[in-house]
Amino acid sequence: QVQLVESGGGLVQAGGSLRLSCAASGLTLSSYVMGWFRQAPRKEREFLAGITWSGGSTWYSYSVKCRFTISRDIAKNTVYLQMNSLKPEGRGVYYCGRRDKGGTIGTPAAYGYWGQGTQVTVSS
Q1: DSSP states of 105-123 as a string?
Q2: Going by DSSP bridges, is the β-strand pair 111-114/18-25 parallel, antiparallel, or unpaired?
Q3: Contact 58/40 with Cβ under 8 angstroms?
Q4: Which of 11, 12, 21, 45 could disulfide-link 108, Cβ–Cβ 3.0 to 4.6 Å?
């Protein structure tokens, strides 16, 4: 069974923080990039952050850099997204994925596996 399971979403006030988790099972991550994306209602899935599993190199979209931090725990096979200073426009479903295909790490089509998503709602 191949699974990516996100958790940690919820309702938060603007300016608040959340920490999202993505637990992987049934697939290897060692040679891949793991990414976090956000999809607002009726919007395209938007790249937020990525990390190489082996080396820990990171990439961020300009919209979240200095507010969000991506990390991973190799022993737990889990990738995290620490989100600080959340804004109302940050509302959406947050997905993690494994980059398996060609294309840039910021392109959703490059990711072959996705979790079910976790909802984040930012009030005020």
Answers
A1: TT-GGGEEEE---EEEEEE
A2: unpaired
A3: no
A4: 45
118-123 and 10-13: which strand pairing?
A: parallel
User: For residue 88, which amino acid is it?
Assistant: P
DSSP conformational letter for 76: T
Tokens standing for residue 50: 């990525």
What does each of the 124 residues of the chain score in pLDDT, given as a tens digit?
789 999 999 999 999 999 999 999 988 888 899 999 999 989 999 999 999 999 999 999 999 989 999 999 999 999 999 999 999 999 999 999 999 888 899 999 999 999 999 999 999 8
Closest CA to 46 of 62, 29, 57: 62
